[in-house]
Amino acid sequence: PLHFDGDGMRMAVTADLNTEAGSFIEYTLESDGSSSCSPSTSEGIVVAYSTNGGMTWNRIIEHSGGQSTATTAFILPNGAKTAATRFMWWQPYRGTSWADKWTLDDVMIISLPSPVPSSLTESFAGSAVTPTNILRHPNGAVGAYC
Q1: Positive or negative, the Cα torsion across 71, 138, 97, 62?
Q2: Are strands 2-4 and 45-50 parallel, antiparallel or unpaired?
Q3: Which end of the chain is less crowded, N or C, counting CB atoms within 10 A of the terminal residue's CB?
Q4: Is pLDDT of 93 > 90?
Protein backbone atom coordinates (compact mmCIF):
# COMPACT_ATOMS: atom_id res chain seq x y z
CA PRO A 1 0.00 0.00 0.00
CA LEU A 2 0.93 3.67 -0.37
CA HIS A 3 1.15 4.96 3.21
CA PHE A 4 0.70 8.63 4.19
CA ASP A 5 1.93 10.26 7.40
CA GLY A 6 4.34 12.98 8.46
CA ASP A 7 4.25 16.73 8.05
CA GLY A 8 3.23 18.49 4.87
CA MET A 9 0.83 17.71 2.05
CA ARG A 10 -0.66 14.21 1.80
CA MET A 11 -1.93 13.31 -1.66
CA ALA A 12 -1.59 10.93 -4.59
CA VAL A 13 -2.19 12.19 -8.14
CA THR A 14 -2.39 9.96 -11.21
CA ALA A 15 -1.12 10.62 -14.70
CA ASP A 16 -3.68 11.79 -17.29
CA LEU A 17 -5.91 8.97 -18.55
CA ASN A 18 -8.37 8.74 -21.42
CA THR A 19 -11.68 8.00 -19.69
CA GLU A 20 -14.03 9.01 -22.54
CA ALA A 21 -15.41 5.49 -22.98
CA GLY A 22 -17.24 5.35 -19.68
CA SER A 23 -14.76 4.30 -17.05
CA PHE A 24 -15.03 3.15 -13.49
CA ILE A 25 -12.67 3.56 -10.58
CA GLU A 26 -11.93 1.22 -7.68
CA TYR A 27 -9.53 1.60 -4.75
CA THR A 28 -9.04 0.70 -1.10
CA LEU A 29 -8.51 3.26 1.66
CA GLU A 30 -7.46 2.26 5.15
CA SER A 31 -7.01 4.16 8.40
CA ASP A 32 -5.72 2.41 11.50
CA GLY A 33 -7.84 2.08 14.64
CA SER A 34 -5.09 2.66 17.19
CA SER A 35 -5.14 5.94 19.08
CA SER A 36 -1.95 7.09 17.34
CA CYS A 37 -3.18 6.28 13.83
CA SER A 38 -6.88 7.07 13.69
CA PRO A 39 -8.02 10.17 11.78
CA SER A 40 -10.87 12.12 13.30
CA THR A 41 -14.10 12.37 11.34
CA SER A 42 -13.20 15.90 10.18
CA GLU A 43 -9.93 14.74 8.59
CA GLY A 44 -11.16 12.58 5.73
CA ILE A 45 -9.80 11.81 2.28
CA VAL A 46 -11.12 13.67 -0.77
CA VAL A 47 -11.23 11.94 -4.16
CA ALA A 48 -11.32 14.39 -7.06
CA TYR A 49 -10.62 14.65 -10.79
CA SER A 50 -9.08 17.29 -13.04
CA THR A 51 -9.50 17.72 -16.77
CA ASN A 52 -7.00 20.57 -17.11
CA GLY A 53 -3.73 19.12 -15.88
CA GLY A 54 -4.46 19.69 -12.19
CA MET A 55 -5.19 23.42 -12.40
CA THR A 56 -8.67 22.87 -10.94
CA TRP A 57 -10.22 19.86 -9.20
CA ASN A 58 -13.77 18.53 -9.05
CA ARG A 59 -14.70 16.59 -5.91
CA ILE A 60 -16.18 13.13 -6.54
CA ILE A 61 -16.46 11.81 -3.00
CA GLU A 62 -15.10 12.43 0.49
CA HIS A 63 -14.37 9.55 2.82
CA SER A 64 -14.82 10.57 6.46
CA GLY A 65 -11.98 10.00 8.89
CA GLY A 66 -11.99 7.48 11.69
CA GLN A 67 -11.11 3.82 11.82
CA SER A 68 -11.97 2.05 8.59
CA THR A 69 -10.89 -0.11 5.71
CA ALA A 70 -13.05 0.29 2.64
CA THR A 71 -12.90 -0.74 -0.98
CA THR A 72 -14.83 1.77 -3.06
CA ALA A 73 -15.95 1.38 -6.68
CA PHE A 74 -18.15 3.60 -8.83
CA ILE A 75 -18.76 4.77 -12.40
CA LEU A 76 -17.05 8.07 -13.11
CA PRO A 77 -19.16 11.23 -13.31
CA ASN A 78 -19.78 12.46 -16.86
CA GLY A 79 -17.50 15.47 -16.31
CA ALA A 80 -14.59 13.10 -15.64
CA LYS A 81 -14.99 11.29 -18.97
CA THR A 82 -12.43 13.11 -21.12
CA ALA A 83 -9.36 12.39 -23.23
CA ALA A 84 -7.07 13.54 -20.39
CA THR A 85 -8.40 13.16 -16.84
CA ARG A 86 -6.25 12.78 -13.73
CA PHE A 87 -7.36 11.70 -10.28
CA MET A 88 -6.33 12.75 -6.79
CA TRP A 89 -6.69 11.30 -3.30
CA TRP A 90 -6.05 14.16 -0.84
CA GLN A 91 -6.19 14.70 2.90
CA PRO A 92 -6.83 18.46 3.18
CA TYR A 93 -6.83 18.55 7.01
CA ARG A 94 -4.94 16.51 9.55
CA GLY A 95 -3.78 16.65 13.13
CA THR A 96 -0.18 16.14 14.17
CA SER A 97 2.43 14.51 11.95
CA TRP A 98 2.12 11.21 13.87
CA ALA A 99 -1.68 11.07 13.68
CA ASP A 100 -4.26 10.77 10.91
CA LYS A 101 -2.29 8.18 8.96
CA TRP A 102 -3.90 6.42 5.98
CA THR A 103 -3.10 4.15 3.05
CA LEU A 104 -4.22 3.90 -0.56
CA ASP A 105 -4.08 0.49 -2.21
CA ASP A 106 -5.26 -1.55 -5.22
CA VAL A 107 -6.11 1.43 -7.46
CA MET A 108 -7.87 0.52 -10.71
CA ILE A 109 -9.19 3.00 -13.28
CA ILE A 110 -10.57 1.13 -16.27
CA SER A 111 -11.66 2.32 -19.73
CA LEU A 112 -11.36 1.23 -23.35
CA PRO A 113 -8.01 1.51 -25.21
CA SER A 114 -6.92 4.85 -26.68
CA PRO A 115 -3.66 6.67 -27.58
CA VAL A 116 -3.53 8.23 -24.07
CA PRO A 117 -3.39 5.55 -21.39
CA SER A 118 -6.93 4.44 -20.59
CA SER A 119 -6.36 2.25 -17.57
CA LEU A 120 -4.26 2.28 -14.46
CA THR A 121 -3.59 -0.53 -12.00
CA GLU A 122 -1.32 0.12 -9.04
CA SER A 123 -1.03 -2.37 -6.18
CA PHE A 124 1.84 -0.50 -4.45
CA ALA A 125 3.68 -3.82 -4.20
CA GLY A 126 7.44 -3.81 -3.90
CA SER A 127 9.39 -0.84 -2.66
CA ALA A 128 8.34 1.99 -4.96
CA VAL A 129 5.42 3.59 -6.78
CA THR A 130 5.28 3.11 -10.56
CA PRO A 131 6.25 6.65 -11.72
CA THR A 132 4.14 6.49 -14.89
CA ASN A 133 1.02 5.74 -12.75
CA ILE A 134 1.29 8.03 -9.75
CA LEU A 135 2.92 11.35 -10.63
CA ARG A 136 3.01 12.87 -7.15
CA HIS A 137 2.72 11.42 -3.64
CA PRO A 138 4.17 13.91 -1.11
CA ASN A 139 4.65 12.31 2.32
CA GLY A 140 3.57 8.95 0.87
CA ALA A 141 5.80 5.89 1.13
CA VAL A 142 5.27 2.31 0.03
CA GLY A 143 5.41 0.01 3.02
CA ALA A 144 3.66 -1.45 6.02
CA TYR A 145 0.88 0.55 7.63
CA CYS A 146 1.25 1.48 11.34
Answers
A1: negative
A2: unpaired
A3: C
A4: no
Amino acid type, 119: S
Radius of gyration of the chain (CA): 15
d(Cα 13, Cα 16) in Å, to the nearest integer? 9
What are the C-alpha distances in Å from 120 to residues 1, 29, 132, 136?
15, 17, 9, 15
Question: In angstroms, rounded to a whole number, what is the distance separating the alpha carbons of residues 9 and 20?
Answer: 30
Say how far apart CA 136 and CA 140 lie, in whole Å. 9
43 vs 82: CA distance, rounded Å: 30
Q: Give the count of alpha carbons within 13 A of 23, CB side only.
A: 27
Q: What is the pLDDT of residue 94?
A: 66
Q: Is 61 helix (H, G, I), strand (E, B) or coil?
A: strand
Surface-to-core class of residue 78, CB atoms within 10 Å of its CB (0-12 exposed, 13-18 middle, 19+ buried): exposed
Which is more confident, 107 or 70?
A: 107
At residue 145, the pLDDT reads 65
* pLDDT above 60 (res 40): no
